[in-house]
């Protein structure tokens, strides 16, 4: 019977070490099993770990904005009844009505279709639907543009916005396939102004 010292086990190749463990387990040699597992753990600890890639400046900005939009959403949900249940009850006459979740599953702003298909750098939004009307607050950045060029868009039916412009003017790169949630909108350079317009639109849609 081979005397498996710690030094002898440490000298084995990874494959030989695995083979020894299999044999020791088959023969129920508890001491050798423990030595093999200890050596494997030691080798695993010495393996270089893949460092997680740091977020790029753009991704960091997107993450921060998704959180700030979500904060506005939570503030609005405390002010108005934006529950899916109420939206469904108030939209009973709309066939196949589907309520919008205000935020994504992680509690952040949702990922917009134009970012999902890669046509813009950032398209994150929060939204509320009642009947056939949708009101959304978005952060938007075209591709190959500096972060400072981002805008905040409030998109909603014209009747819910003061001074609304056609959505095609606000998002001129959007194609027919990238149909927007409403025909009108407002563009802002700062979030507080956009949030105020979103608030005003929600006041009308929930009245």
The termini sit apart by 86 Å
Radius of gyration: 28 Å
What percent of residues are in strands?
15-25%
Tally of contiguous helical segments: 8
Alpha-beta classification: alpha+beta
Encode the helix/strand succession as letters. HHHHHEHEEEEHEH
Q: What average pLDDT do the residues reach?
A: 93
Shape: elongated
What is the tally of beta strands?
6
Strand order across the largest sheet: 1-2-3-4-6-5
Uncertain ranges: none
Largest sheet: 6 strands, antiparallel
Helix content: 40-55%
Describe this protein with a few key phrases:
207 residues; 6-stranded antiparallel sheet
Quick overview of this protein structure:
The chain is of the alpha+beta class and 207 residues long.
Can you walk through the features of this model?
This protein is an alpha+beta fold. About 45% of the residues lie in helices and about 15% in strands. The chain is built from eight helices and six strands. Strands 1-2-3-4-6-5 form a six-stranded antiparallel sheet. Strand 3 and strand 4 (about 150-155) form a beta hairpin. It is elongated and about 85 Å long. The mean pLDDT is about 95.
């Amino acid at each position: 019977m081979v005397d498996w010292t710690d030094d002898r086990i440490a000298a084995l190749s990874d494959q030989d070490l695995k083979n020894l463990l299999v044999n020791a387990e088959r023969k129920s040699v508890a001491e050798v099993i423990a030595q093999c597992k200890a050596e494997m753990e030691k080798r695993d600890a010495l393996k270089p770990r893949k460092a997680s890639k740091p977020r790029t400046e753009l991704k960091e900005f997107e993450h921060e904005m998704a959180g700030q939009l979500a904060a506005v959403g939570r503030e609005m949900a405390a002010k108005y009844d934006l529950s899916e249940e109420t939206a469904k009850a108030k939209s009973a006459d709309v066939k196949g009505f589907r309520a919008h979740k205000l935020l994504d599953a992680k509690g952040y702003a949702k990922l917009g279709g134009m970012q999902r298909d890669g046509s813009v750098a950032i398209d994150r939004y929060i939204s509320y639907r009642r009947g056939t009307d949708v009101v959304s607050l978005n952060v938007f950045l075209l591709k190959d543009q500096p972060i400072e060029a981002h805008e905040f868009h409030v998109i909603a039916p014209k009747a819910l916005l003061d001074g609304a412009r056609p959505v095609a003017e606000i998002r001129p790169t959007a194609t027919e396939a990238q149909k927007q949630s409403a025909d009108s909108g407002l563009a802002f350079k700062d979030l507080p102004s956009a949030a105020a317009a979103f608030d005003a639109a929600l006041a009308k849609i929930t009245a």
